[in-house]
Each structure stands twice: as structure tokens, then as C-alpha cells.
Amino acid sequence: MQREQTVNYLLSERFYEWSVRGFIPNKKIQSGYNTDQPQRERGWNYWHHLFTPRQLLVHGLLSSLVPETKEGLVSVLGLGKIANWDSKLCQWGVGAARESIAQTFYNQALNTFLNFAGKGLTLLKGTLLLSPPVAGHQTVSEISTLDARQVSTENDLWITDPPYADAVNYHELTDYFLAWYEKHLGRIFPEWYTDTRDALAVKGSGEDFKRSMIEIYRNLAKNMPDNGLQMVQFTHQDPSVWADLGMILWAAGLQVSAAWTVSTETTIGHKQGNYVQGTVLLILRKRLNDLDAFTDELPPKIEDAVKDQLDHMTAIDDQDHPNFGDTDYQLAAYAAALRVLTQYSEIEGINIENELYREKQKGQKSEFEKLIDQAVEIACNHLVPGGFDEFQWKSLTADERLYLKGLELEKHGELRAGAYQELAKGFGVREYNFMYAKTKANEVRFKTAREFGRSHLKEHGFDASIVRHALFAIHETIKQESARQGVNYLKTEVATFWNDRKKLIEVLRYLSRLAHIDHMEHWETDAEAASTLAGALENTNG
């Protein structure tokens, strides 16, 4: 307590001078979607309220040492980095180690905590001292910051990372760092402006957002030659957002000519789970033709494009340590659908501009969005789980595929309900809640054979499927401690036993591979029984 009193005394001596000189923030937090949160929850109205006295003292001392030369820019960036990793918005215990600390913007918001974390000076060394790469050669370049609608320079290539319908409010969050940079930048680069230019941000949703986006891409298309191209970086799991993007690009006179997914989450921690691990790169060109299409012509073309896209991705993916999950393949399916749809100047039966600006009711889907939805269904049906025979996979029902793919999600560490819901939507399965063993947040998984037990053994749907019979046969094998009981059950209850014996073996072999997975101990006994039962079936004869 005495040391903290000393900190308060030292800070109070310097606070006014440092605020005036810009060594610590003195800006008021402006009202906004994200910036209202700390004001509403804690009454923090100035940016310096987001830091403890000790943090302000340490950061302020480092800030006062920033050289007022162009070389000082690296120090300014380091100052922003320690502000991100050492504030009252840093959360405790987010990694494998309980003492680990999350950065302020771990989720692009301004979350407040009662038990926030802080770092001592020695822990800030690696954060503050940056070593930016040095260019090996020099080129002539021009850097401009302006509204994309005012661009008048022609380029062969435009690269954009557009805002989404539920965009991160960068124009608000930028102020967090600008509060530390503002006076330094004014001294080091007097010709630079130091406001956020938030009035220029393309933000929100609805008609204004869409019109702004069309104006931007139409202007960029205008300022590139006929053989030029644009690359759009895009990541979103909502088909309606993809549909809006497709219609925006179409209205701007652009078409998607190619697309591929690049793995952007490259660290081991980020690659666990089935959330999006890649970013889709869409290649756009001017739509120079006047092709027309009827809506009934499009589904088979979309199917071919989706399958081709997924086959290319699976061919280059690392089978032992996959770079992409099911959600990434779904993104690729969206992109493939856009490649088909945006090549036409007119689609009979779809007024794209009317659909783009029309205010939709909740649950209502445009014709364009329905075609995008089909792409995901095609992707789900086309993607065969690793090691599963493709012929046998295609003979399974949608419910069976959902259950087996759900187990694959769990195998990859996915425990979020949203991922299972997206999977069910992709397969077109509406009733699947009975498959869940757990529905608690971040603990979601499907049932094992023993957890199903004797439930859901009826004469229709999943209850009468090959997969459900295989699960009950595993249950009987464990209960009776004999694979013979499982085989006898299958021979008796599966009318098509001899025709479907290979399919049963394939399903059981797939389930047997769930053994010896650290986070799937609940499958250990069932998986071993599945292996034993598969062997018994292989040795069964008439």
C-alpha cells in the first residue's frame, strides 16, 4: 500500500505536464457502440481512466523518452503495443497457464473486468522494443489516405479488406491508441493529420451501407484497366452477408473470377477448434459480357464450382495437421457460388438491385441468398470425413452424415453449439437436438453409443438408420461383453444386413478411430467395442 501511495504521489507530480505534452492520454472518450461500454459499466469517461496509476506512471515515463525524430515512430508503435497489453481491460488466465494475460483487444471490444491483470516493467520489455523488418530494396511509392470514393489514380491491382455488415468499429477503437500517439505524431510528422477521420468510415448496415460499398467498388473498377483485377479479403459465416457482398460486387460491375482460402490462424492455439481459420481471397475482374441466365440453370453450375473448389483445397491440405476446418470449406463454398452468380449481367427472375436494397423481414431470404445456401449444402454433402469410404458416405442419409461429422467436429476440439447448428443447417437437418449429450456452452458434443442406450430405436428417420443400428450394436456388445450379441442384433434387426454389411463395417471402423483421443475419453470403451464388432462382422458369413 505504501508503494502504491508512492506511485500516486509520483504520478500526481507529473500528471498535468504529461497530459499537456501528450505523454499520457487526456482525451475524452467519444460516445459510440463500443466506446459507450466502459462509460456505462464503470463511469470511465477519459482514456486515461482505462489505466491504473502505476500503468500511467510507467507508460508515461517511457512515452517521455520517445525521440522527436522520424526514428521515434518505432517507439510510438511500441507505446501503443504496451497500452494494448497492460491496461485495466486485460483479462487474467486466458491461456494454458493461469497466470497468462490477454491483450485489451482480444475480441475487438472494450470489456471491463473487476479482476484485471497488469504487467511490471520487466514484463513489458519484449512488448515495447520492436524490431521492424528493413526493406532489402527501394521502390518509388505513394501513400495516400483518402475516401475510396475519391480515388482517381488508375491501378492494375486493387487490394481491399472491406467492412462487413456487423463490422468491427475500428473508427471508435482507433481512438484508444491515438490517445497515446496524437501529440507524438504531431511532433514527428507535422504534415500528418491526427484525427480518426471517423466521418469517412463506411459503417453500419442497411441501404446506406450497401450504397457506399457499391460506390467504392464501382469507383475502383472505374480506375483499373479492362484486364486489371481486384483482390477482396473476406471472412464471414453468415450466408446473408455473403449474398449481400455478391450483390454489391455485381451492382458495381464486377465478377468473381477465382477464389481460394489462405490459412491465417497459424499458431497451434488458434488452429484448435472448428472456427474459421482462413480468409477467403476473392479475385474480381470487370464484367465485360452481357450473359443472361435462368435460375434453374444455376444450381448444377454452382454444384460443379463448389466441388471443384473443395477438391482443390483438400488436395493441398495437410492431412495430419489440417489447415482448414469445415467452416473454412463452407466459406470456400460461398465464394464458389459467387463465382458463378456474378458472371451474369442478368439472372431471369431475380432483380438483384431490388433484392439488395429491399428491407427483409426476419427469417426471410432473397433468391440470391437461397442460391448461396445451396452451396453450403453441396459442400457438406461433398466433404467426406477422413478415412471414410466415399461410396459408402454418399449412401448415408443426411441425419447419419450430420451425426458422424459432428463427431469429427468434436475430434478437432470444437465445443461450440454454433458450429453444430451451422453443420445441421448445411445438411438440411432440422431435428437433431436428441443427438446432443451436452448442450452447456463450450461443452457441446453428441452422444456416445452407451449414452443413446435403447432410446431412439423406431422405424423411421435416424432411429431406423444404419448408423443408429451400429450404435445400438456397440451398446449390446459392451453390455453383454461379447461381439456376438452385437452381430446377432444386426442380423435380426437390419433387414438389409447382407447388402449393408460393408457399410456397417465402415461406420464401425470410423467410430473405432475415436479411441485414444485425449479430450474424448468418454468414447474410449465404445470405440474399442466398435473395433471388436467391426472385426466380428468382417468374419461373419452366411
Task: Give the structure's gist in a few sentences.
With 542 residues, this protein is of the alpha/beta class. The chain has helices at residues 2-21, 36-42, 53-64, 72-85, 121-128, 170-188, 206-222, 239-251, 268-271, 298-316, 326-341, 352-357, 367-382, 390-394, 398-411, 417-427, 449-452, 466-480, 483-493, 497-512, 524-538; strands at residues 157-160, 229-234, 254-263, 278-286, 292-294, 346-348, 436-438, 445-446. The protein folds into 3 domains: 2-128, no CATH class; 206-383, no CATH class; 387-542, no CATH class.
Q: Which band does the percent of strand residues land in? A: 5-15%
The rounded distance between the terminal residues' Cα atoms is: 84 Å
Task: Give the spatial strand order of the biggest sheet.
Answer: 1-2-4-3
Mean pLDDT: 86
What structural category arises from helix and sheet content?
alpha/beta
Quaternary state of the chains: single chain
Query: What is the succession of H and E elements?
Result: HHHHHEHHEHEHEEHHEHHHHHEEHHHHH
The domain tally reads: 3
Tally of helical segments: 21
What does this protein look like?
The chain folds into three domains: 2-128, no CATH class; 206-383, no CATH class; 387-542, no CATH class. It contains 21 helices and eight strands. Helix 19 (483-493) packs across helix 21. Strand 7 (436-438) and strand 8 form a beta hairpin. By secondary structure, it is α/β, with parallel strands linked by helices.
